[in-house]
Amino acid sequence: MRGVLDYVPGNTILHRLDPRTKLLISLMICIAAFISDSEIFLLGLLALNLLFAFIGGVTAQALRMLKGLSKACVFMFILQVLFIQQGEPYFSFIGIHITDYGVRTAYMVILRLLDATLPLSLMLTVTRLTDLSNALVVHWHLPYQYAFTVTTALHFIPVFFNDMQAITEAQIARGVSLDTRNPIKKIKLMIPMSVPLLVSSVKKTEQEAIAVELRGFNLRTRASTYKVPHMHAADAAALLLGAVLIAAAVLLNR
Amino acid sequence: MIEFKDFSFRYASGKANALQNVNLTIDDGDFVGIIGNSGAGKTTFTYAVNGIVPHHYKGDFYGAVTVNGLDTVDSKPEQLAVHVGSVFQDVDAQMVASMVEDELLFGLENFGIPHDQIEQRVTEALEEIGISDLRMRDLDSLSGGQKQKVAVAAILALRPDIIVLDEPTGELDPQSSEQIYSLLQELNRRGTTIVAVEQKIGLLCRYATKLLLIDKGCVMLYGTVREVLQQSSRMEEIGIHVPRIVSLHKELTRMGLVRCPAPVNMDEAEAMAKEALG
Amino acid sequence: MIRFDDVSFGYNDKGGTVQHISFTLKKACITAIIGANGAGKSTVSKLMRGLIRPSSGRVFLEEQDMAGMKVSQLAARIGFLFQNPDRQICKNTVREELLFSLQFTVPDRDRQAACCEEVLAALCLNPDDDPMVLSRGERQRVAMATAMVHKPELLILDEPTTGLDYRECTEIMDYVRSLNRNGTTVAMVCHDMEIVQDYADEVLVMSAGRLIASGSTAAVFRNREILDAASLLPPQIVDLSLRLGEGYENISDVDGMAKAIAGKGAKA
User: Fold this and answer.
1) Three-class SS state of C254
2) Could you tell me which of C208, C206, C200, C202 has the C-alpha nearest to residue C226?
3) Of B93, B276, C103, C153, which residue is least crowded by CB atoms under 10 Å?
4) Do A155 and B154 touch (CB under 8 A)?
5) What is the pTM of this model?
6) Are B216 and B255 contained in the same domain?
7) Cα–Cα distance between A144 and A137 in angstroms, integer?
8) With contacts defined as CB-CB under 8 Å, which chain B residues touch A213?
9) What single string gives the DSSP state of each residue in B176-202?
10) Which residue of chain C is at minimal alpha-carbon distance from B90?
């Protein structure tokens, strides 16, 4: 998680788009990926995702995401290939057929998975959470309390991650064999560690609650927002692109 | 001005009073350093000023605390917050944004500062703290000392008359701690009242104007830095760290070698030694 | 005891990077690692314990390369006290907490119990207390106990006094000194120069990821150049002795200074 979904500062065209646009076009790409049955189109979407990553200066993040997803992909591929028995077998062993249909279906599922996961994750790397929540609160009338809860939760993920790492280190240092290779033993040892994590989380959230209360959280209204994002020509173009992608997905299926 | 009148407070979960019978006044323009052992009631004292007690933490509240004439029981924390800005020890837990600028905007937006004044407030606060270059930076990329400065800037932008800090240098090295305190001193000289809980008494001696010693919920000593240091034996009894140059002063005074008041910094310590040497 | 041979370590783009560190930790001494935030002190302390591995260079424990050792098993030889005790504490009583530490290194129940009794007495802890309701200073002592229950030859402290008041601080440090007198080697990362002055025999000075000086505490604190390079201030009495110049070179405590001044003053 860490370093992959974090915001990457920059001033590219993607950074400057209205957060609403980025949210919408991500969803549109997802929809197009689910509608389409054409592998060329799906491959094209993947290329488009990577192009976006390149434009936004987050290629490294995109590649790391792909690397992270690759394990899930391999797993799903094997599962699909083994379970789908229809079609012309390439070869068979102990009664299981590896078929052309199975391989193609598996391959399509993976492409869809990648096409649908990348856009939203990439969006987070080029959009500040504060800007996203401002846009949703001002334009889409999302109650600020909800927006704040979500942004704070996301904001705390790396903090808790650091905590978890420090706790693991502390436990290993006192002799708890968390550095074991046996996963079951490791999970068993991890359970008591939820105590220190819980203690520190509760303390942190308590502090945060006090701090924001004293900085006027309860006084906030929708009109308070200072930085209000607006749509520009580039946003319209991006949304048009999204619409074209969905249309193309539908048309190519015929 | 902050006034405590016969103030006592017991947390709903507590067995004894966290603070007991506090009567004191903090005047406009004071820089008060609060010292005391763990669990003495220092944090509770800051909570009583910014209204966290009794609004956030409930309990038995006796007597009265007024801040700029506002009774802290009758006023909501956010009303008090216009007068009192608070900075906490855990710097990560008080940040709400991912970028420095947004961190400053949060309070300004909430308190409904007119939008045409916001830009100026942000620029000025960053300039005063000397971190204008950090404005567009991600908070994650900053050091502990820089983050603490951002926390102070975010409070400063709201232009409170009083700033309350709870161990603002807890995690910082000596040099960054020094920087934070010289900043606070600068703000204080321009009229902001500062109340800071601090373990490093050496820092307070150099930067604060008054010291407040709390032990087991009671105010033991309260006065100018020199007045309090003059009573270093009381501090030793309680187990408070006495700066070495102050202990030396006590020793030299006992030997009848010096008449000067207790030194608060190294220059004064040097002068004291020269006096003793004749 | 511990020897660093040209050790480098880099977190990806974050602080805490160290470069080309070489030193030998003296046996049966208290060595302090000092320097500004981000100078790499904590990184060095974690490298010593094996919690992180050098990206280049080697760390030796008694002339054995630590690369091949299992980190959690090393607890029997190297204790580590973190600045925040709450990261270690996870059980309902102090005794369970100690047994949790021991379960992997000491299989025998009776021996476990014996180990616990000893350290509980030394740190004035009640085995039946719930660590969560203890004060911060007491929790720090519990954390200390979970490390010392292994009777390690080396104890590493990462800012052991942060968040403690002066009294709690001296309690912990006096215990550390008593361990040291009984032969335990101690390495500590510390921001408080008075503590370093009072307790450390040797210091390692770090600045921007490099080891810029090492030597006896007395010698390093009297070297302005080194302290300036590391953005540190000398302890007050040492500072005063430097200001007073000749005749005050070896004085670092209040009594010594008072006597010296009284002596000189009488002559004058």
Assistant:
1) helix
2) C206
3) C103
4) no
5) 0.87
6) no
7) 6
8) 56, 77-78
9) HHHHHHHHHHHHHHTT-EEEEE-S-HH
10) C163
